[in-house]
Recover the amino acids of this structure.
């Protein structure tokens, strides 16, 4: 009945950040961050903090795309 041998269906063998299947879009940046943090068993509170800081960073630098984010290190250097 209870089946202690059953695995939760939410766990996946695919690596985080990869598309879920053919025709499926690539997960968004923050979803990729969450997936990696869950893979490494970070606390949910740590995950929320990291995601919040990433959002603040993106908003502060007015980034709109992944290309903008890739150049983010140069933006930080300009402000220091």
């Amino acid at each position: 009945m209870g089946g202690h041998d059953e695995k939760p269906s939410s766990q996946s063998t695919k690596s985080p950040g990869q598309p879920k299947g053919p025709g499926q879009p690539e997960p968004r940046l923050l979803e990729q961050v969450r997936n990696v943090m869950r893979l490494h068993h970070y606390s949910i509170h740590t995950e929320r903090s990291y995601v919040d800081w990433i959002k603040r960073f993106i908003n502060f630098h007015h980034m709109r795309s992944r290309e903008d984010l890739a150049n983010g290190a140069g933006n930080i250097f300009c402000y220091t």
User: Anything to note?
Assistant: The helical segments are 29-39, 44-60, 66-70, 72-79. The chain has a mean pLDDT of 75. The longest helix spans residues 44-60. The radius of gyration is 17 Å.
